[in-house]
C-alpha cells in the first residue's frame, strides 16, 4: 500500500465518520487524482491559506463529548501533516521509507500546562491538560505504526472511539508523573477557576517540565 494513498483514505474515513461529507468528497477527488495521474497539487491547494480546509475545525455538536472531538481533531491534524509531507516528497520525487518516517515524524512532549494557587501553593492539571501533553506520542504512534502495518484506518477508528491502547497508557504515565510531583490531577476538562484546596480564585497558569532524571515534573515558573 502506498503511504500517501493510505493516509488519504484514512482522512476520508475520519471526515465521513464525523459527518463532514463535503470535506470528505474533496479528499475523495484528491485520491482519484492521485490514482489516475499521481497528482498531489489538488491536495496541497486544499490546505493552503485560501483552500477549502483553511481554518477547518470539527464542530462540537458532531460528537458525544468534548473529549472525543479533541482527539478527532488531533488525529485529523496529524494525518494532514503526514499526508502533506508525503505529497511534497512525491512532488519532489524523493524516496520515502518507513524508517525515515519513524525517525522524523512527531516528537515527545516535554512541557505540561497547569495552574498554581498563589495563596496556598496547590498545583493542579486537569484531564484536558493531560491530553494535550500526550497528544504527540499517541497520534504519532497511531499514524506511523498504522502505515507500517497497513492498519491505519483501524487505528484511527480506535483513536476516535477513545479506545486506542496508547491513549490510556500515556494518560496513566502522565498522572503518575504528576502525582510524584505533588500535582493534583482533576477529571475536569475546563479551565480551573477556583483552588480545590483553599477556594482562592488567585490562580496562575504555570508550565511543568518533564524531568529527564526522575519520573516527575519540574515547575518552570511561579
Helix and strand run: HHHHHEEHHHEEE
Biggest beta sheet attributes: 5 strands, mixed
Task: State the end-to-end CA separation.
Answer: 51 Å
Rg on CA atoms, Å = 20 Å
Give a count of the beta strands, DSSP E runs of length 2 or more: 5
Principal-axis shape = elongated
Low-confidence stretches: none
Structural class: alpha+beta
Strands side by side in the biggest sheet: 3-2-1-4-5
Strand content: 5-15%
Mean pLDDT: 95
What would your notes on this structure say?
The protein has 222 residues and is an alpha+beta fold. Helix content is 54%, strand content 11%. The chain has eight helices and five strands. Strands 3-2-1-4-5 form a five-stranded mixed β-sheet. A hairpin with a 6-residue loop joins strand 4 (203-210) and strand 5 (217-219). The longest helix has 26 residues, at 66-91. The radius of gyration is 20 Å and the shape is elongated. The mean pLDDT is 95.
Concise structural overview:
This protein has 222 residues and is α+β, with helices and mostly antiparallel strands. The chain is built from 8 helices and 5 strands, in the order αααααββαααβββ.
List the helices and strands and how they pair.
Blueprint (H helix, E strand, L loop, with lengths): L2 H15 L3 H17 L3 H6 L19 H26 L6 H7 L6 E7 L5 E4 H23 L2 H9 L4 H16 L3 E3 L16 E8 L6 E3 L3
Parallel strand pairs: 2-3
Antiparallel strand pairs: 1-2, 1-4, 4-5
Provide the descriptors you would attach to this structure in a database record:
222 residues, alpha+beta, five-stranded mixed beta sheet, 8 helices, 5 strands
Amino acid at each position: 500500500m502506498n503511504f500517501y494513498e493510505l493516509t488519504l483514505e484514512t482522512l476520508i474515513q475520519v471526515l465521513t465518520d464525523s459527518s463532514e461529507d463535503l470535506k470528505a468528497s474533496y479528499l475523495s477527488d484528491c485520491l482519484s487524482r492521485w490514482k489516475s495521474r499521481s497528482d498531489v497539487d489538488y491536495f496541497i491547494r486544499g490546505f493552503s491559506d485560501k483552500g477549502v480546509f483553511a481554518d477547518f475545525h470539527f464542530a462540537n455538536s458532531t460528537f458525544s463529548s468534548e473529549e472525543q472531538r479533541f482527539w478527532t481533531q488531533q488525529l485529523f491534524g496529524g494525518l494532514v501533516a503526514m499526508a502533506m509531507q508525503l505529497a511534497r516528497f512525491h512532488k519532489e520525487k524523493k524516496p520515502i521509507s518507513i524508517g525515515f518516517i519513524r525517525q522524523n515524524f512527531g516528537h515527545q512532549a516535554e512541557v505540561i500546562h497547569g495552574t498554581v494557587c498563589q495563596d496556598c501553593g496547590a498545583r493542579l492539571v486537569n484531564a484536558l491538560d493531560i491530553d494535550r501533553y500526550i497528544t504527540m506520542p499517541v497520534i504519532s504512534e497511531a499514524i506511523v505504526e498504522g502505515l507500517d502495518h497497513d492498519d491505519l484506518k483501524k487505528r484511527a477508528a480506535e483513536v476516535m472511539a477513545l479506545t486506542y491502547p496508547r491513549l490510556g497508557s500515556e494518560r496513566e504515565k502522565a498522572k503518575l508523573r504528576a502525582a510524584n510531583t505533588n500535582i493534583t490531577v482533576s477529571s475536569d476538562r475546563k479551565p480551573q477557576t477556583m483552588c480545590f484546596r483553599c477556594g482562592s480564585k488567585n490562580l496562575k497558569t504555570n508550565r511543568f517540565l518533564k524531568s529527564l532524571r526522575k519520573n516527575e515534573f519540574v515547575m518552570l515558573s511561579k
